[in-house]
Structure formats: C-alpha cells, structure tokens
Amino acid sequence: MPRPKTFSKAEILTAIQRLMARRGVPPTVEELRAALKVGSNRTVLRYLKWLEDDGDIERWPGGRGIRLRRAPGEGLETRAVPLIGEAPAGPLMLAEESHEGWLRLPVELAKPRSANFFLLRVRGDSMNRAQVEGERIEDGDLVLVRQQTTAVPEDVVVALIDGEATIKRLARGPNYYFLKPESTNRDHRPILAGHDFQVLGVVTRVIKKGSNLFEVSG
C-alpha cells in the first residue's frame, strides 16, 4: 500500500489561496481535503495546526475561519488591479488618477495577461440572481471586469446608459439590444440600448463581500 503524500507549507497555502480565488471566501476543511486529495479531515486539521503554529494563517471558530497571514512562497503569481468605483453610479473614470486603490489577485483570475482589468463594487440588487463562474452578483460584492468596448449576447457587462454605470446581462431583441436585470426584485426593468449605450467591459469573476483574499497594493 503506497504511503500517503505529504505536502509542504507552500503547497497547502497555495491550495487555500486558489480555493479562495475561486469562491471568494476561505475554504472549509472538507473543501481543502478534496482539493488536496487526502483521506481524512483529521489530516487537514493537522496541516492547519502546523500553519497556524508557524504564523502562516490565522484561525477562529466557524466553518470558514481561516485567514492567510503570509502568501505562498511559490506557485502563485499576482497582478495589481485597480478598484475604480461602484455600480450603479455616475460615469466611471478609467484613467489612473481616478482609481480608488489597487488590489492584488492571482494572475490565473485575470487572464489573458494582455487584457486590462478593473474591479467594481456592486451596489443594489438588480443582478442578485445572475451568476458568473458559479457566484451570484450581490450587493457589496466586487466584480472583476475585463475592459473592452464590445460584448456578445448573454455576457454580463458593465455599461454606461444615460451617463450612469450599470451591471446587466446583454440580450438581443429582433432588431435591437437591451440590458436585462436578473433580480428577485421585480421593480427592475430591462433597459433598451440606445445611441448613448457604451460597453466598458465584461464581468469575468465575482469576489464575494467579506473575502480576505486580496492584498492592497500601494
């Protein structure tokens, strides 16, 4: 019978950070066990105790009570992405001098490398039934947006309508395009994409409110 695989601290930290990148929240012990492909939760708990004792993570009671205190020493590159505001809001200024700040995130979230990305804070419930990569777009979340001026129907886009930024799903009618809300609130209505309609980018990820994955960059 083969001996169970042992993991380095860097491998475990990388697994934790990648799970956080996917879901925007720290992993449970069971989720980490499945990612590492080990036989029991007890083994995972031993690894977590090791990391906690060495100051690599902080833990507290609860299913997702893990915070990284130190980035993995290997295996995960990051890139800086600007946080430029919130939607719905007024016109979004993409120029560097208007950025609220910068956050670092794994490069695997922001591909291709040649594309420009920005982060936007969600305000309101007009898209709380929509999902991107399995995560709902809810009030207070951040969305990662690939900057581009074109989109195809069914993309979730950030657009300017009447000078206001909004997050909606692009849809096509017989001879026109419109922006479709996906909400539990029936007060939200589709918006016809008129001559003043402008696509700023396509939403590629949702970073859940309360996530501690991202590091502020100067």
Write a concise keyword list for the protein shown above.
Arc Repressor Mutant, subunit A, ten-stranded mixed sheet, elongated, Umud Fragment, subunit A, 3 helices
Write up this protein.
The mean pLDDT is about 85. The radius of gyration is 20 Å and the shape is elongated. The protein is built from three helices and 14 strands. α1 (about 10-25) packs across α2 (about 30-35) and α2 (about 30-35) crosses α3 (about 40-55). It folds into two domains: about 10-70, Winged helix-like DNA-binding domain superfamily/Winged helix DNA-binding domain (Arc Repressor Mutant, subunit A), CATH 1.10.10.10; about 80-215, Umud Fragment, subunit A, CATH 2.10.109. β9 (about 155-160) and β10 (about 165-170) form a beta hairpin. Helix content is about 15%, strand content about 35%. With about 220 residues, the protein is of the alpha+beta class.
